Amino acid sequence: MQKISLLLCFCLFYLNIQAQKAAKDQLGTWYMYNASHKISNKFALKTMAHFRYYEIASEFQQEIYRLGVNYTFNPKTNLTVGTSYSTGDLEYDASSVGLYEYRFYEDLNLKTTWGKFKASHRIRLEHRFIHKDITIDQTRNWVRYNLNVNYPLSKKWSAYIFNELFINLDRAKRFAQNWTGTGFLCKLNKNIKLKMGYFQIKSSTVVLKRLQLGAIIHTDFTKKTF
Q1: Do 162 and 145 form a contact (C-beta atoms < 8 A)?
Q2: What pLDDT digit, counting tens, does each position of 19-33 carry?
Q3: Pairwise CA distance, residues 68 & 80, whole Å
Q4: Is 80 exposed, middle or buried (0-12, 13-18, 19+ CB in 10 A)?
Q5: 106 has pLDDT over 70
Q6: Could you tell me which residues are beta bridge partners of residue 167?
Q7: I need a surface site. Which of 31, 82, 83, 222 has the fewest CB within 10 A?
Q8: 123 — alpha (psi -120 to 50), left (phi > 0) or beta?
Q9: Cβ atoms within 10 Å of 190's Cβ, excluding its own
């Protein structure tokens, strides 16, 4: 009886270890670079690079690069059109088929102010061309709505919360994902901010937990440097 009890305890311990290896049980990390480069009074280039992991700095999940052209209508409204390329690993702690994709996107960005709160709204149409293991090609289209609210804590620090909803345009099941998170921004100077936050990715099948660590850079090539 004692041997059976020990065997059961061992099995439970083993199953618990295996369960902890599931992607949903890990705290992953996104390392991010986002930048805006002003080239005229109306136009700017948008660049981005993200490196995403299932764990803090291991178990690669995805890398994505984005380039866009932004046009400003007025201080509260602007539009970005761009493209991106990404590669990814579909499985955590296991081998996966190769995955890469190209995306084209259109962003409508709106800014509003509620007292000390600054809100930004982004409506994105995204068109994805997905290639799995070279032999499988898929297309997917969705619309994303992001609401980000920022509150200043001091001249250097501010706090933010955000929510982003993903809706399928070419699938019977409309809901795709929902991202919800919060964090802090630290202004190093007029050109550079550091971002530190936490958010959750919710789909119909899983909830993933992620840290966000990144830099936000703004440059202005319209200003004379001499």
Answers
A1: no
A2: 456 778 889 999 999
A3: 6
A4: buried
A5: yes
A6: 143, 175
A7: 222
A8: beta
A9: 8
